[in-house]
Design brief:
The structure holds 2 protein chains of 2 kinds. Chain A is α+β, with helices and mostly antiparallel strands. Chain A has 11 helices and 42 strands. Chain A has a 22-stranded antiparallel β-barrel. Chain A has a 5-stranded mixed beta sheet with strand order 1-6-7-4-5. In chain A, strands 23, 24, 28, 29 and 30 form a 5-stranded mixed beta sheet that branches. In chain A, strand 40 and strand 41 (about 805) form a beta hairpin. Chain B folds into 2 domains: about 35-230, no CATH class; about 240-490 and about 515-575, no CATH class. In chain B, about 15% of the residues lie in helices and about 30% in strands. In chain B, the strands form 7 sheets. In chain B, strands 15, 19, 20, 24, 25, 26, 27, 28 and 31 form a 9-stranded mixed beta sheet that branches. In chain B, a hairpin with a 6-residue loop joins strand 27 and strand 28. The chains are: A alpha+beta, B alpha+beta. Chains A and B meet through strand 28, strand 30, strand 39 and strand 42 of A and helix 1, strand 1, strand 4, strand 5 and strand 6 of B.
């Protein structure tokens, strides 16, 4: 009995070690990078076989075309031309820009190989070798003629026909969003960036894109309903959050009508994502209005890359998820197609079953969202430097979300989509897209006798942009220049905004990343936008000074200004909000009150990023934001007799007396925000990633004389994320992550029946903690994977905003087939 | 190892699959259950006016809490809820028969055209648990708007009614008997311990401790029938203060000259009436002449937009004997409060304390509610002021039209701490127990208590009379026709520039519209002349027991709790209330 027990304990220990031991299975990229560096070092020392083995290991962990190229090159240097050709052909199949050069190399090598084989054949004829049956055939000495004589190497030159090894950027993190197009290391980015990798997405098991952002230091997430989220960076969050610009492959998915993102209506799901780049802090210098608090760029897997898959998932609470992807390449033509379905129930209902006094927009009060997605994109390489792309996406379904002001729970059903095309050349990019939204909006529920404020909403955005990128040197100073012009037509129509409106926007942006030396860089960016609502030009400059004390560390100081233009809903509001008293409304009419000014933010940031060591990296940032002209709702002003002069103060369209006016105005106070973020990622032992980050955000409003507004924090002061990811040789992998958000006081406008008036209410919200986890198993053959994901496993039922759903616990199980 | 893990995971997935069921999300942050009132409006009256392609006016349905009925039936100042059936909807079936001016100008059918009968449905919600009356009218001339005092009540020609049980009798001239619409069931409910129950029960308890509680699924009160069939025969009692007559300072003194068109009527909080004898009191207290309409130089402004008052030429105020004891008969027992010698007349004239936080003097102070009733007097000679003495023994059974009436101001304020609580205490305050001649200022003590209890709808044993300086503050003046509930209030928005309406240098306009200055007059209880007297009375009240069964230990406690708001209580405690 004791022996059996000891045996079992020992077995478990071995099991545990077995899970974790062996070759490192930390972050795949980090691990692959370790092998890559070892391999290149060995090759540099002439130890080709060891070097090739390490490179192959790296490629197994994380395939990379340049690694394949280097393997091919190493085989050439080793003298194994045939294998080298095989690897070069693999490289050519990946359709890289220098495919033609590689093809020529293959041709030259083939000539050499043919010549060698001919020589071998001739030598064999002259002096045939008879194998000794008593001897191991492998020990038979090779043909005395060296089958692959080394190519002449005059001096220190590389062997002829072999291009230099490719080491730059291999397995290094690169971001494109911070500099708009040019891929940079985060160490060279002019803003604070975070990257959510494909591995993070897979190991987390999360199926909602904004939930993936919760782990980002400084990200402010409100899970409103079963599916919809509001996102901001470094504070300033709200219902219908509108300060983060969300892109998919660089295309804005901002819904201009209300100025935010309906995340669930994107035509892609998490399985289509290669990575998500999060730029914290203003991005108007490159992206224009709306990138006040940050930019989130969802970069999808390119056509022709990755594998096909089908994944299904479900939960006992009625959640369902399905994702399908097919991709392929035919020469220079690559394509990808995806289809997806998701269904999430609400976390909590506000209308219990059987209510006779309430009417609802949807008969299903359990449903949070139900969306069908389709997406198809294709690229065609026309020449080495020219490629063309075309594609589109579509989604339709139902969404439950929370509006702003007195408007709370809303439902929307509709269709969303885009058509996008681009032409890329070596230096010039032209891109155009058309986004459309067609949806029916309505309050989710209301008392009988109260209006559900229904409206159809139509949105159209047509955008065209030309950008130029180049690098040049002036003396010893390097310049990476990026500039462009942009035109955007925005159109929106709804009852809330007085009908259909068009706006024509123009933008001009430029950036120069100046390298004075390997240690010192200066990045200057700026953008000029014409805002039709104000009929003014708005400038958004940004300057960043980067100093690299070591090759893999950076001290960065950034200063920037950004603005957010009023949305259609804010700028053109004409909406009667019925008061509980009955046939009386407060007319929210911004145009009656006056024109809005853009919101403005001034940011100064100091950051330190260190990636000197392979097993740990950390980042520390401190920032100051001054936010002014925040758009807010004016307290309702009672109508006056003067208002009645030209207006009967009775809305014929909805049969209500107008008792007051409100509208969006610019707040008279300013917010001074001090904050900081500390993040650490470590790979302490093989197979484990550990990450942790903490964010502090403290807001102090200043009130000029005569400015009497209710103070509020726009985010929790403290946020903490702790996580562990693990992968194993036996196919078991997963993640555990813990989130903590400290208490917060919200100030919201609401109807107070005791005084029969709309008042500002202070609504304290307790802090909350959540534990999420996923465990998955890949069956042998790496085609089938099963997994279970738990969200809020400890069932810490909480609200993330005083008006929204109570977030509970959810488990989902998935099966995926890759082919 | 792999096989074991495979088994575990597949087993878990299988278990998952077998337990997939539609789990209903928990109901949290639930919208509180309420009542909904649904019904039909039946209109029987003249065909409507039309303008700009639409029917003029709407059917307005006002829901009143039975504890806060509008004057003269209660102390309510506004309805709990307002529903509406648009004129276009109500007369939808008759649209093809109505006449619309091609130019869009307003067209009203001539008098004598046959009545029409139409109906329309309404829904009203949310309605909190409680008991209600629904009173209604069709705004025939399209001038109604609930936000302004000058437009928030029906006018001449509007077709009135409500949810009543005696429609036929009303058409014959009877007073309407409004049905009681109940939301929730009277339930013994301990709302202090059950938060969920508290959300669907009335915050106030009935006299037996039960509360109206709505069922968890809500309540829909259906088939409520609202009849509109009584065109109002009277116009609202538009008036302005034409003259203020102050009393002499002593019983033998000479009264000062009257003041024409005063913008404020001031009564010192320690006013000592020289002679309180009802036969003579009018000569020894303040009286104001209320003249119908507005001064001649303001007529154009008052009749024009945005006020559009339909002022008669000449203006009239109607007077009639008032059934003050509500016994349905007008006789010698219908007298003024506290005196069996003088008959009660309408219009009723009351002063209601304004909310000090409202700089525009539009809002009546809700709690505590303070008011004073003036005595209505008139003279057969329309050019002379009314005399109380002429009314001592006269029944006026039909309305008489006059150009002016007189309001005799009594230095007495009635305090009701919570107008919605019929079980609460009531306090009557007057500065002196005796007038300057030594006679009692409250001559008929028990009748005073009875009359006050009836006026405020409370039990007499909760009423006390205190002799102390009056609570200071600004008061509105209200003239009310009790039969129709039509009233006129000053000050009102016609005479006040509201926020966003900048007054012109000459004071004649507010923003883009005219300022009708006569409508800004208000009544004020001003600081005491003899502050030491007020302090002396305060001390005396502090030593005076409030009597058996009173919730207050002393009279001072009663005064403080029933007559003063929070700010005033602090000043009372500090001894600076009458400074």
């Amino acid at each position: 009995m004791r022996k059996r027990l000891i045996g079992r304990v020992t077995c478990s220990a071995v099991f545990a070690l077995g899970l974790l031991s062996g070759t490192a299975w930390g972050d795949a990229r980090t691990e692959a990078r370790v092998h890559f560096r070892k391999g290149m070092a060995a090759i540099g020392n002439g130890n080709y076989e060891v070097g090739i083995s390490e490179l192959k290991r790296a490629n197994d962990i994380l395939p990379h075309p340049n690694v394949i190229y280097n393997i091919a090159r190493a085989y050439v240097e080793l003298g194994d031309i045939e294998t080298a050709i095989s690897y070069y052909r693999s490289y050519i199949e990946q359709n890289q820009p220098d495919k033609e050069e590689a093809t020529q190399i293959v041709a030259q090598l083939q000539v050499r190989l043919d010549r060698q084989k001919a020589q071998q054949a001739a030598a064999q004829k002259k002096d045939p070798v008879v194998p000794d049956p008593g001897h191991d055939p492998v020990s038979v000495p090779k043909n005395p003629i060296d089958p692959i004589p080394p190519l002449p190497v005059p001096g220190n030159k590389k062997p002829k026909g072999v291009a230099p090894a490719r080491t730059e950027g291999v397995y290094e993190e690169a971001v494109v969003t911070a500099s708009r197009g040019a891929a940079l290391s985060p160490l060279d980015a002019p803003s604070s960036v975070a990257i959510i990798t494909e591995q993070d997405i897979r190991l987390s098991g999360i199926t909602k894109i904004p939930e993936l952002l919760r782990r980002v230091a400084g990200a402010d997430i409100i899970a409103e309903s079963g599916a919809q989220h509001d996102i901001s960076m470094r504070g300033l969050n709200q219902r219908l959050a509108n300060k983060v610009l969300v892109l998919v492959d660089g295309r804005s998915v901002y819904v201009d009508w209300f100025g935010g993102t309906f995340w669930e209506t994107l035509s892609i799901d998490v399985d289509q994502i290669e990575r998500i780049e999060v730029v914290k802090g203003p991005g108007s210098a490159l992206y224009g209005a709306d990138a006040v608090a940050g930019v989130v760029n969802i970069i999808t897997k390119a056509p022709g890359t990755g594998k096909n898959h089908a994944r299904l998932g479900g939960s006992y609470d009625g959640s369902a998820y399905g994702s399908f992807r097919a991709t392929g390449r035919e020469g220079n033509f690559a394509y990808k197609m995806s289809a997806g379905y998701s269904r999430y129930p609400r976390w909590s209902r506000e209308v219990p079953p059987g209510r006779t006094d309430v009417k609802t927009f949807s008969n299903d009060q359990n449903l949070g969202s139900e969306i069908l997605r389709l997406d198809a994109r294709a690229t065609q390489r026309i020449s080495k430097d020219i490629s063309f792309g075309l594609g589109g996406g579509y989604s339709q379904g139902f969404l439950d979300f929370y509006a702003t002001g007195l408007l709370k729970n809303f439902n929307t059903t509709g269709r969303f989509g885009d058509i996008t095309a681009f032409i890329n050349t070596k230096k010039v990019t032209f891109r155009t897209f058309y986004n459309f939204q067609r949806f029916e909006n309505s309050a989710a529920s209301g008392y009988v006798g109260q209006s559900l404020v229904p409206t159809p909403i139509v949105g159209n955005v047509a955008d065209a942009e030309v950008a130029y990128a180049d690098k040049f040197t002036i003396g010893k100073i390097g310049n990476a220049v990026n500039a462009g012009v942009n035109y955007r037509l925005r159109n929106a129509a709804s009852f809330y905004t007085g009908g259909s409106r068009d706006e024509h926007h123009f933008g001009l942006f430029a950036q120069d990343a100046i390298s004075f030396s390997k240690k010192l860089e200066l990045v200057l960016s700026g953008r000029l936008d014409y805002v039709p609502y104000t009929k003014k030009l708005e400038g958004s400059p940004r300057g960043a000074l980067l100093y690299h004390p070591t090759e893999k560390s950076t001290i960065r100081g950034t200063f920037s200004l950004a603005f957010r233009k009023p949305t259609f809903l804010e700028g053109y509001t004409d909406l009667g909000v019925q008061l509980p008293i009955g046939a009386v409304e407060a007319n929210t009419n911004t145009m009656k009150i006056g024109q809005l000014r853009p919101e403005r933010i001034l940011t100064a940031e100091l950051a330190y990023l260190n990636r000197d060591l392979d097993f740990i990296e950390f980042e520390l940032a401190a920032y100051y934001n001054r936010v002014s002209d925040l758009t807010t709702l004016l307290p309702s002003q009672a109508v006056t007799p003067s208002d009645r002069l030209g207006d009967p103060l009775f809305e014929m369209s909805n049969g209500r007396y107008v008792a007051g006016y409100s509208g969006f105005v610019n707040s008279c106070n300013e917010l001074n925000v001090l904050g900081g973020e500390l993040g650490v990622k470590a790979y302490p032992i093989e197979g484990l990633d550990v990450f942790a980050n903490y964010a502090l955000n403290k807001s102090s409003p200043t009130h000029p004389a005569g400015c009497d507004v209710v103070e509020e924090q726009r985010t929790s002061m403290h946020k903490l994320n702790l996580g562990v990811q693990g992968r194993s040789k036996i196919g078991l992998d997963g993640e555990i992550i813990f989130h903590y958000v400290s208490p917060q006081d919200w100030v919201e406008r609401d109807y107070d029946s005791s005084v029969n008036a709309i008042v500002n209410k202070s609504l304290p919200l307790p802090g909350y903690a959540m534990l999420n986890a996923r465990v998955g198993y890949r069956f042998p053959g790496n085609r089938v994977e099963a997994s279970i994901t738990g969200f809020n496993i400890l069932n810490s039922v909480h609200q993330e905003h005083p008006f929204t759903n109570y977030v509970g616990r959810r488990f989902m199980a998935f099966m995926q087939y890759t082919f | 190892m792999r096989r074991m893990i495979r088994k575990i995971l597949l087993g878990s997935l299988a278990a998952f699959a077998t337990t997939v069921a539609c789990v209903v999300p928990p109901s949290l942050n639930v919208i509180p259950p309420v009542g909904i009132v649904k019904g039909t409006v039946l209109y029987s009256g003249p065909p409507p006016c039309t303008e700009a392609g639409h029917v003029v006016g709407n059917a307005n349905l006002l829901l009143f809490d039975t504890r806060l009925l509008p004057p003269p039936d209660g102390l309510g100042t506004r309805s709990s809820r307002l529903a509406l059936v648009q004129g276009d909807v109500l007369f939808h079936d008759l649209m093809s028969t109505l006449y619309f001016e091609p130019s869009g100008a307003k067209y009203c059918p001539p008098a004598g055209v046959a009545n029409v009968t139409v109906s329309g449905v309404f829904e009203l919600g949310p309605v909190d648990p409680g008991a209600y009356q629904m009173r209604a009218f069709y705004d025939y001339d399209g001038d109604f708007h609930p936000s302004f005092k000058f437009s928030n009540l029906p006018t001449l020609g509007d077709v009135a009614g409500g949810a009543i049980s005696n429609a036929t009798a009303v058409l014959a001239g009877a007073k309407p008997a409004y049905s009681v619409l109940t939301i929730g069931e009277p339930t013994k409910a301990d709302v202090s311990t059950d938060a969920e129950l508290a959300k669907r029960c009335a915050s106030w308890a009935l006299t037996d401790g039960r509360r109206y509680c709505v069922r968890p699924e809500g309540q829909v009160l259906e088939n409520v029938s609202v009849a509109l069939a009584l065109p109002l025969p009277t116009q609202r009692p538009f008036f302005h203060v034409a003259q203020l007559q102050a009393p002499p300072l002593t019983p033998d003194g000479t009264p000062p000259a009257p003041v024409a068109n005063p913008n404020k009527i001031t009564l010192a909080s320690d006013f000592h009436v020289p002679n309180a004898n009802p036969l003579f009191v009018q000569d020894f207290t303040y009286s104001v002449r209320l003249t119908a309409g507005v001064p001649a130089d303001e007529r154009v402004s008052a009749e024009g937009k945005p006020f559009s008052l339909a002022l008669a030429k000449p203006g009239v105020l109607l007077t009639q004997s008032y059934d003050s004891n509500r016994d349905g008969v007008i006789d010698a027992t219908d007298t003024i409060i506290g005196s069996s010698l003088a008959r009660a007349l309408w219009p009723l004239i009351t002063f209601a304390k304004l909310d000090a936080k409202d700089p525009y003097r539009r809002t009546t102070q809700d709690k505590p509610r303070l008011f004073s009733s003036a005595i209505t007097a008139y003279n057969a000679d329309p050019t002379a002021d009314g005399r109380l003495t002429s009314l001592i023994a006269r029944n006026v059974l039909t309305p008489e039209a006059r150009g002016s009436i007189t309001a005799v101001i009594r230095p007495t304020i009635i305090c009701v701490p919570d107008p919605a609580d019929p079980s609460g205490p009531t306090t009557v305050v007057t500065p002196y127990e005796n007038d300057m001649t030594g006679a009692a200022t409250v001559g008929e003590f028990e009748k005073t208590i009875d009359d006050v209890a009836m006026q405020v709808g409370r039990k007499r044993d909760g009423v006390r009379i205190l002799y102390a300086c009056l609570p200071p503050g600004a008061f509105s003046m209200n003239v009310i026709y009790p039969l129709t509930g039509q009233a006129w209030t000053m000050p009102n928005e016609m005479g006040i520039c509201l926020g966003g309406e900048e007054q012109s240098v000459d004071g004649k306009t507010c923003g883009k519209r005219a300022k009708v200055t006569s409508q800004s007059t208000f009544f004020e209880v001003s600081p005491a002349v003899d502050k030491s007297y007020c302090a002396t009375r305060k001390d005396a009240l502090a030593k005076q027991s409030d009597g058996a069964g009173s919730p207050f230990a002393t009279a001072a406690d009663r005064y403080r709790a029933t007559c003063l708001n929070a700010d005033e209580q602090a000043r009372f405690d500090a001894g600076t209330l009458w400074n």
